[in-house]
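User: Can you fold this complex?
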Amino acid sequence: MNKPKDRTVYKGRKKEMAREMVLAEDLVFPGEKVQAEAQRGRSEREILEAVQKGDKEAYGRIVKRYMHSAYYIALGFVQNQQDALDVSQDAFIKAFRKIKMFDAGKPFFPWFYRVLRNLCIDHLKRKGRMRAIPLENVPVLAEEKEDRELKETLWKGIEKLSFEQREIVILRYFRQFSYAEIAELMGKPIGTVMSSLFYAKKNLKRIVGKYLGFE
Amino acid sequence: MDHLKIKELISFYHEGELSAEEKRMVEEHLEQCAECRKEFAEMSEFEEVMEKMQLKKPKKEVWELYWSAIYNRLERKIGWILLSIGAMILLFFGGYKAIEGIIQDPSLSFLLKVGILAVLGGVVVLLVSLLREQIFVHKRERYKEVEK
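Assistant: Here's the predicted assembly.
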């Protein structure tokens, strides 16, 4: 047989995420332009130390850096654009109010992720829809005509996964975190993450098998 | 190496996270195992579908206004705190003066004074009770420890 392609998948999506970062860096208000330029060279630790002293403008840099990830992760959980926007913004506000508890020597996102995740869980409990939503109503996916039914079925399958498996699929496939990063975000051993992802993929592959002609 | 182990490695092959040794093991196994070749082909198709799945993008303005919405809410919080403190001071001062006036007013009958003071006392008890309930709920809030 031909040697399998040695490829790292999701290159396109990684480029898109890189563009998001560039866009986020440029998202400053006119009056902030000079200050933003000065802050561009600051490390995340320096920015976070400034935030802990109450510097809201510095926090703006942090928010703009992580807002895309926060929004899309929340969307994966709460399945509604407006709710995802509200929950992700609430998470940034809550994180700011608790920022003094944060160890600025550590990366911000894993700490923030736990705030975001808990707010998503609270939101889902409030709405009483931890489980699947009807197939005909999948407002989470981009409106593309290609393979629409297949993608909706696949998303429905993602919905049916356990909460932990769904979380790993969202982080891995829709935000391209590495296994090590997912393990850090979830506070679980990397082996557990890989094992959960393996079984999640096995379930999903079975669900879409009939569309793709798998026996 | 058993199929289950190879199938697990196949599952991760496309994600670019296998070591060079693990990749070589998979590739060598695929040369001689039709079942795993089929698994590999199916997994490739599956990964392609997953790759094409996109979450709905919000409008560009959402990103432009994202931080300003947070900033405004952070600013307003300070305003609400100051407003609440001021309102409480005025309320307590007004209440104190009102009670003092009622007690010292010789034109009001004793029974009326008792009635008014009972109503005010009831309001205070209810407010304290509500406040205590809120503190009780807050102390038992789920996941609070995780955020720390």
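The radius of gyration of chain B is 35 Å. The helical segments of chain B are 3-13, 20-32, 34-52, 60-104, 110-139, 144-147.
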